[in-house]
Design brief:
By secondary structure, the chain is of the alpha/beta class. Helix content is 47%, strand content 11%. The N and C termini lie far apart (52 Å).
C-alpha cells in the first residue's frame, strides 16, 4: 500500500503555464492560425504534461496486460478461457494485431502476466506480475481480496518504474492494452458502479456473443453488483469486488505515468475502465490521459464522459490489446513534430496575414 500512496502523492496538476507560450509558437508557424486543429491541441497537452517546450515522443511503449476471469464460468464470452494464454504467446511471437501496428509506428510492446490461469515458460519479453491464476467468479462473491486489488495496482506501478529505471532507452509516452477472455464483463460492472447507469446501458457484446448470451451477461453483472455491493466512493473496493487483475495493473500503469509526467494513451473499453479507477483514486490523473479511440462497446462513451476525455479516433474498433492506443500515438507524435520542426513565418521568409490572423 505504501507504493500506491507514494505514487498518488507524486501526482500533481499538469503545467498550465506553458500553454500560452506554446500557443503563441503554434500561431507563428507557417500556416493559418489553428489550421492543424487537434494536432495543435495534442502538442500543447504534451508540453503541459512533460513540462518541456520541445518534447520528444520517439520512444513509445505499449504495455499489454493479461489476466483471466472466473466469471467466464457464467457463459459471458464467445471464447474459452484458454485463449488468453494462447494470445499471450501470440504477442510474444510478434503475430498479433498489436505487434503489427506497433511495428508500423515504431513502438515497443511489453507483455505482462497479471493473472493468467495458466503458467508460462520463461520468455525474455514476458514480465511476470501474476497476482493469482485468474480472479474468482464475481457472480458468487468478490473477484479478489482487497489486498490483491492493491497488489495488482502496485504491480502496474512497478512495471512503469522498471521501464523508467532499467530500459536502455528513454520512455517518452505510454499506451495501455489488455488481453483477458471475459474482461468486458468486469469492465461493464465497473462502469455501471461509477457512473450510476444501468447495466444494460453500459454492456455490449464483447467478442460477439448472441442475444441469449448477451441477456445472460447483463443478468450476471446485475447479480454481481447486487451480491458484492461495490462502493463507488472507494475505487479499490470496486476493483476488488467486480474487477480484474489486468484492470488493476493498468490502473497502476496510468497512475505511475501521471506520477512521472509521462503521457498515457488509453486504448478501448477495458483500458478505459482501468483509467476510470485511476481517475477515481486521483482526479488529477485525467490531465495526463489521451483517449485513443471510441470503441464500439457501448459502455466506453460513458467512461470517457466520466473522466472528461475526448476520443481521438472513431475507427469502429474493439480488439483491445492496445491497438487503438498505438495508432493514436502516431497522431500525437505528429502534433509534437509540427511544434518542433515546422518553420515559423520569419524562418521561412513567408509573409503573415495582413489581418493578423494567419
Amino acid at each position: 500500500m505504501e507504493k500506491l500512496k507514494n505514487t498518488i502523492d507524486k501526482i500533481k496538476p499538469t503545467d498550465k503555464s506553458l500553454l500560452q507560450p506554446t500557443q503563441s509558437r503554434l500561431d507563428n508557424l507557417t500556416k493559418p492560425r489553428g489550421s492543424l486543429g487537434k494536432l495543435e491541441d495534442f502538442a500543447k497537452k504534451i508540453v503541459s504534461i512533460t513540462g518541456k517546450e520541445n518534447p520528444d515522443l520517439s520512444e513509445k511503449v505499449i504495455i499489454t496486460m493479461a489476466g483471466d476471469h472466473g466469471v467466464t464460468q457464467e457463459g459471458v464470452s464467445a471464447y474459452p478461457q484458454e485463449v488468453t494464454a494462447q494470445m499471450v504467446y501470440n504477442f510474444l511471437n510478434g503475430g498479433a494485431g498489436i505487434n503489427v501496428l506497433s511495428r508500423h509506428v515504431g513502438a515497443d510492446v511489453v507483455v505482462v502476466d497479471m493473472g493468467v490461469a495458466g503458467e508460462f515458460e520463461y520468455h525474455q519479453n514476458l514480465v511476470i506480475k501474476k497476482v493469482a491464476r485468474g480472479t474468482k467468479n464475481f457472480a458468487k462473491g468478490p473477484s479478489m481480496t482487497r489486498e490483491q486489488a492493491v497488489e495488482s495496482i502496485e504491480a502496474g506501478i512497478e512495471v512503469v518504474e522498471e521501464l523508467i529505471n532499467h530500459r536502455p532507452k528513454k520512455l517518452h509516452i505510454l499506451g495501455t492494452g489488455e488481453m483477458g477472455i471475459g474482461n468486458t464483463t468486469p469492465s461493464s460492472a465497473i462502469t455501471a458502479v461509477f457512473t450510476g447507469l444501468t447495466v444494460s446501458d453500459v454492456t455490449g457484446r464483447g467478442t460477439g456473443i448472441d442475444d441469449n448470451a448477451y441477456l445472460n451477461k447483463v443478468k450476471v453483472i446485475e447479480k454481481a453488483i447486487s451480491i458484492n455491493k461495490p462502493d463507488p466512493s472507494d475505487p479499490i473496493d470496486v476493483l476488488s469486488k467486480v474487477g480484474g487483475f489486468e484492470i488493476g495493473g493498468l490502473a497502476g500503469v496510468t497512475l505511475a505515468a501521471a506520477a512521472n509526467s509521462i503521457p498515457v494513451v488509453i486504448d478501448g473499453f477495458i483500458s478505459s475502465a482501468a483509467a476510470l479507477i485511476a481517475v477515481e483514486i486521483k482526479p488529477e490523473v485525467k490531465e495526463y490521459i489521451f483517449a485513443a479511440h471510441k470503441s464500439v462497446e457501448i459502455g466506453h462513451t460513458a467512461i470517457l464522459n466520466r473522466i472528461e476525455v475526448q476520443p481521438i479516433l472513431d475507427m469502429q474498433m474493439c480488439l483491445g490489446e492496445g491497438t487503438g492506443a498505438v495508432l493514436a500515438m502516431d497522431l500525437i507524435e505528429a502534433g509534437v513534430k509540427i511544434l518542433n520542426e515546422m518553420a515559423s513565418f520569419g524562418e521561412a521568409g513567408v509573409s503573415k496575414s495582413v489581418k493578423g490572423d494567419a
